[in-house]
Amino acid sequence: MPSFSLSAFVATALAVSTSAAFEPTSKTNVVTYWGQGANQQRLVETCKNSAIDVVNIGFVDVFPDQGPGGWPGTNFGNACWGDVYEHDGVNTTLQKTCPYIGEDITACQETYGKTILLSIGGGSSNAYYIEDDTSGESFADFLWGAFGPSSVNGGQPRPFGDAGVDGFDFDIENEIIPAPTDSNGDTIAYATSGYAAMINRFHDTLFSQDPSKTYYISGAPQCTLPDSHYTTVMASAWFDFMWIQFYNSPQCSARAGINHIDGLGSDDISFSAWESSTSLNQDIKYYIGLPAAEAAANDPSYYLTPAEVQQLAKRFINDNAFGGMMLKSLRLPHRVL
């Protein structure tokens, strides 16, 4: 296995800007995830890396429609203690004491110029879903009050104190067999149910409550198209970015893209197909998601060397919709990204 240095990897792969603030129109942005490692360092240590522009904190992995007490639940690995909030006499799964995340978010934003998003979903659960549009809008309201600017709090708990994130990421990977049913016994289209309403509630209504800065919405789909979770939703809901997981799906992976360039196979990376997808946001930016080391993917063959990453980036760097790279860290469990 090759040794790994994120800074060296990124610097070799792209001519990364190290400016103090995230520039969403740049083509050299670097995105990563933090939050579920058993032995991870504090969030601020990730933010000290000048190569990184956006950090997604993962995850809100229990949804209100399934959560005890009707509240969402979280899992931030070793960054939180074991205690949870109580609601209506029920212990929820919303972690209560996360002593350093709030202050680290503030340091990441104010000292290191990072954009911090809270990621919803993840691959660790196959049971989360939103029952309907009303539930989706209520879910957005809860997260906005709990993790957005403290000035908009409507009585929701504040696990990160006064610190507020810069937006929300949707890493939806749930596969539920058999499909869930509603109170009438009708099958719920769980793969897309409620997501457009939730996202548009954020973008069209809630974000405008704090005009002091720009808030963002992102998604982290698999590379196959059509995508059961995102294809129809992104046509009717606002996404600023898509961090596409070009690994673990051989027919559309970044490795297939490199093999295609080298004339070694008929399959190819599906980046161009994603660019051609119908999106409500005509200026959406697409990112190439890669494992940051061999051990960060289910199959080590999906790992690209820095030279191969540079080769792939040069292929798309002139595309208007290309935004940069998303890197899956070794500290996250498989399928979380």
TrEMBL record:
<dbReference type="GO" id="GO:0098552">
    <property type="term" value="C:side of membrane"/>
</dbReference>
<keyword id="KW-0119">Carbohydrate metabolism</keyword>
<keyword id="KW-0732">Signal</keyword>
<dbReference type="InterPro" id="IPR017853">
    <property type="entry name" value="GH"/>
</dbReference>
<keyword id="KW-0325">Glycoprotein</keyword>
<feature type="domain" description="GH18">
    <location>
        <begin position="28"/>
        <end position="337"/>
    </location>
</feature>
<feature type="signal peptide">
    <location>
        <begin position="1"/>
        <end position="21"/>
    </location>
</feature>
<keyword id="KW-1003">Cell membrane</keyword>
<dbReference type="GO" id="GO:0006032">
    <property type="term" value="P:chitin catabolic process"/>
</dbReference>
<keyword id="KW-0146">Chitin degradation</keyword>
<keyword id="KW-0326">Glycosidase</keyword>
<dbReference type="GO" id="GO:0005576">
    <property type="term" value="C:extracellular region"/>
</dbReference>
<dbReference type="InterPro" id="IPR050542">
    <property type="entry name" value="Glycosyl_Hydrlase18_Chitinase"/>
</dbReference>
<keyword id="KW-0378">Hydrolase</keyword>
<dbReference type="GO" id="GO:0005886">
    <property type="term" value="C:plasma membrane"/>
</dbReference>
<comment type="similarity">
    <text>Belongs to the glycosyl hydrolase 18 family.</text>
</comment>
<dbReference type="InterPro" id="IPR001579">
    <property type="entry name" value="Glyco_hydro_18_chit_AS"/>
</dbReference>
<dbReference type="Pfam" id="PF00704">
    <property type="entry name" value="Glyco_hydro_18"/>
</dbReference>
<dbReference type="GO" id="GO:0008843">
    <property type="term" value="F:endochitinase activity"/>
</dbReference>
<keyword id="KW-0449">Lipoprotein</keyword>
<dbReference type="InterPro" id="IPR001223">
    <property type="entry name" value="Glyco_hydro18_cat"/>
</dbReference>
<keyword id="KW-0336">GPI-anchor</keyword>
<protein>
    <recommendedName>
        <fullName>chitinase</fullName>
        <ecNumber>3.2.1.14</ecNumber>
    </recommendedName>
</protein>
<keyword id="KW-0624">Polysaccharide degradation</keyword>
<keyword id="KW-0472">Membrane</keyword>
<dbReference type="GO" id="GO:0000272">
    <property type="term" value="P:polysaccharide catabolic process"/>
</dbReference>
